[in-house]
Design a protein that fits this description.
By secondary structure, this protein is α/β, with parallel strands linked by helices. Helix content is 40%, strand content 18%. It has two domains: 6-152, Rossmann fold (3-Layer(aba) Sandwich); 160-277, no CATH class. It has helices at 17-26, 40-49, 62-73, 89-99, 112-126, 141-152, 203-210, 213-235, 253-265; strands at residues 6-11, 30-33, 56-59, 80-86, 132-135, 160-168, 179-182, 240-247, 271-277. A five-stranded parallel sheet has the order 2-3-1-4-5, sandwiched between helices. β2 (30-33), α2 (40-49) and β3 form a beta-alpha-beta unit. The chain is globular, with a radius of gyration of 20 Å.
Length: 287
């Protein structure tokens, strides 16, 4: 691999590392899960030696992530790409309740909430070293896996992968967004009785949002400024950028905006564009 010899995968327990491992195995990576910390030095030496013929991913828990990063960077010429998975507290709690598994730290006497809080603090400790931070909050397993496949499947004709995410502010900001744009200034179709049960993928909602004069002016501004900014980001050799667009509930206006912006960005030959409507299925009584 020209840009990296090894992917170092880490993240919060319950945020999707097992799913990520399956995705990278499909991509042809040799995946090494949770090797003993005492072997990091020798392991990274071996990975660097075999980098020209073997794609490798090493998965480590957050408690050992800092040590793994430091050991890898002691190997002269070794290029690592740190991928970290996170999710919101409610999502992690829900996943553990569904699976009835124990968080690894619960075996040491932690409550589940305290264990998750500890994970978050460990993520913050390595944040300067993270190349890609993935927030899996609200993601279906199938979509998360497809997103990883799309991002890390080498496409020599594209310079950057751009992820466009629609979301609802009332459900929280995407933790991994590089840039956030607010479209709540647009009239909300939720307040029209015949439209509130539809989504931004339905023609009636698309017409309601796109026929507003303000929609076109906002879109032109975002298109112009975002493409200019992406050019600067590409010059920095970054391969992934996430732009999150939010409305109140994440079901109507932001979805329309993301779909329309994606149709524009896909015309740029440098960009590989993916779409994720995080909150489109979260219906609430009031917006």
């Amino acid at each position: 691999m020209s840009s990296r010899d090894v992917i170092l995968l880490t993240g919060m327990s319950g945020a999707g590392k097992s799913t990520a491992l399956l995705a990278f195995e499909e991509l042809g990576f040799r995946c090494i899960d949770n090797p003993p910390a005492d072997l990091y030095g020798a392991l990274f030496e071996l990975v660097h030696h075999e980098a020209k013929t073997t794609k490798t991913l090493i998965s480590v828990n957050l408690l050992n992530a800092k040590r793994a990063i430091e050991k890898a960077r002691q190997i002269e010429g070794l290029h690592i790409h740190v991928l970290c998975l996170v999710a919101s507290l409610p999502d992690i709690l829900s996943r553990y309740k569904l699976t009835r598994h124990l968080h690894p730290l619960q075996a040491e006497g932690y409550t589940l909430a305290k264990a998750i809080d500890t994970d978050l603090s460990l993520v913050e400790a390595i944040r300067p070293d993270i190349d890609d931070l993935f927030d899996t909050t609200g993601m279906k397993v199938s979509f998360f896996k497809e997103k990883l496949l799309h991002l890390f499947r080498q496409n020599p004709t594209k310079t950057m992968n751009v992820s466009l995410v629609s979301f609802g502010f009332k459900h929280g900001l995407p933790m991994d967004a590089d840039m956030v744009f607010d479209v709540r200034i647009l009239d909300n179709p939720f307040h029209v009785a015949s439209l509130k049960m539809l989504s931004g993928l339905d023609e009636k909602i698309i017409d309601f949002v796109q026929t507003q004069p303000l929609f076109q002016s906002l879109m032109k501004r975002v298109e112009r400024e975002f493409l200019q900014y992406l050019t600067l980001v590409i010059e920095q050799k970054r391969h992934y950028y996430e732009f999150a667009i939010g409305c109140t509930g994440g079901r109507h206006r932001s979805v329309v905006f993301v779909e329309h912006l994606a149709s524009i960005l896909k015309q740029d030959p440098r960009l590989d564009v993916t779409i994720y409507h995080r909150d489109i299925d979260k219906f609430v009584n009031q917006e």
